[in-house]
Write a structure and sequence with these properties.
Length: 397
């Protein structure tokens, strides 16, 4: 018996992929008297376990079919949004809020409302341009796209949300289904659809990487409860939807953490529950009627001077406000020096770590609703008193 050949592995590129070809070791056996021979192939140990039956040409795997169906079902609900004041690079005077100029939007309803980020149409807002504030490109049932002039309905700078309205036929308006961002879990798959760098209807995928992130928007405001994802988000994705695997919108993409200006795998979206509270008010009033305690809380560096590291220290309380009438005490002067005010440690049983927590929690309430504050009084003493105060929320000015 003699060995003929060896087991070798070769790599070659096929249709952009690296394919591996294994040559089997063969044994050729000769019979000495008749010079007849036979050949058998010896499969290297473990190789049989790696062999898979090839799928039919061009056939999609089940998970691929699901992804394609999600994209095709929802892509018409995503708009391309152009700030009209920045088209052709005409910025004019320096804008109060730096605008991105080109972004994405989400078809909200069949009345023609399209939701996007404030910073996408910041130029029109700064110029106080209402009708024709933006050009919104929508895709019709036949797959053709058309641009429509959009009217600015309202905007909330603090949460980086704006609502536009277009007068478009129903065939161009396919509202996205909305989900529940409070039900999200880290690790679940998500999809982002948008127009990065002007490439319309682009799909990227990833997972929920984190929850309850503090997002700093391009306008400098802080947005609580943000969704972190590794789905690729780039300039032009702003205002587009973040979807779950059921095709429900769970957030609006708004920002990325990067040193280069392009995606580094850390993107953020405004939770859809926050957006759900804002958009109806913008449509009805043109602004957000935001609830407030009418209390000014100390910044964290100030609170630390009074050894307050957990909770929100009341610095100023309007005596005529509901909080003042309920007995919430501010920081004040006395003969012995400055006396720290009450420290809010919870709202309706939810822990308050700082002022930002209060702002985030109050976004979930309406003006006139009553909340229960848990406060510590006398934090400068050895035995601070724990109190509960019921306060009706007022409109923020």
């Amino acid at each position: 018996m003699r060995h003929n050949g060896a087991c070798r592995t070769k790599r070659r590129v096929v249709a952009g992929r690296v394919a591996t070809t294994t040559t089997m070791r063969t044994h050729t056996c000769f019979a000495s008297s008749t010079r007849t021979w036979r050949r058998r192939t010896v499969v290297p140990a473990g190789l049989a376990l790696l062999q898979v039956r090839p799928r039919q040409s061009w056939a999609l795997l089940p998970q691929e079919e699901s992804m394609v169906a999600l994209f095709e079902t929802n892509t018409r609900g995503v708009a391309n949004v152009f700030d009209a004041t920045l088209i052709n690079g005409n910025r004019g005077q320096k804008l109060a809020d730096e605008a991105e100029g080109n972004g994405s939007g989400c078809v909200w309803d069949e009345d023609g409302h399209v939701v996007t980020n404030y910073h996408v149409v910041g130029g029109a807002i700064a110029a106080k341009k209402t009708y024709g504030a933006a050009q919104v490109v929508l895709q019709g049932e036949d797959g053709d796209s058309k641009a429509f002039p959009a009217t600015l309905v309202g905007a909330d700078r603090r949460k980086d949300v704006a609502v536009l309205r277009v007068d478009a036929p129903k065939s161009f308006l396919k509202p996205l289904m909305r989900g529940d961002s409070t039900a999200l879990r880290v690790g679940q798959q998500v999809l982002a659809i948008g127009n990065p760098f002007g490439f319309d209807h682009t799909l990227t995928t990833g997972v929920v990487s984190g929850l309850n992130r503090e997002i700093q928007s391009q306008l400098g405001s802080n947005i609580g409860g943000g969704i972190q994802t590794d789905a690729s988000i780039n300039p032009g994705n702003s205002g587009g939807p973040l979807l779950d695997m059921e095709g429900r919108m769970i957030g609006i993409n708004t920002a990325i953490f990067t040193n280069t200006g392009v995606s580094a795998g850390v993107g953020f979206a405004i939770p859809i529950n926050t957006v759900n509270n804002i958009v109806p008010q913008l449509i009805k009033f043109g602004k957000v009627v935001r609830p407030s305690l009418k209390v000014q809380f100390a910044k964290e560096n100030v609170a630390r001077q009074f050894a307050v590291t957990n909770g929100a220290l009341a610095q100023f309380v309007d005596e005529k406000s509901n909080a003042g009438k309920a007995g919430l005490l501010p920081t004040r002067r006395s003969l012995g020096g400055i006396v720290p005010g009450d420290v809010v440690t919870a709202i309706d049983g939810r822990r308050v770590r700082n002022e930002a927590d209060i702002d985030n929690y109050l976004d979930e309430y309406q003006v006139g609703e009553v909340v229960v504050l848990t406060v510590l009084r006398g934090v400068e003493t050895d035995k601070p008193e724990k109190l509960s105060l019921e306060i009706a929320l007022e409109e923020s000015k």
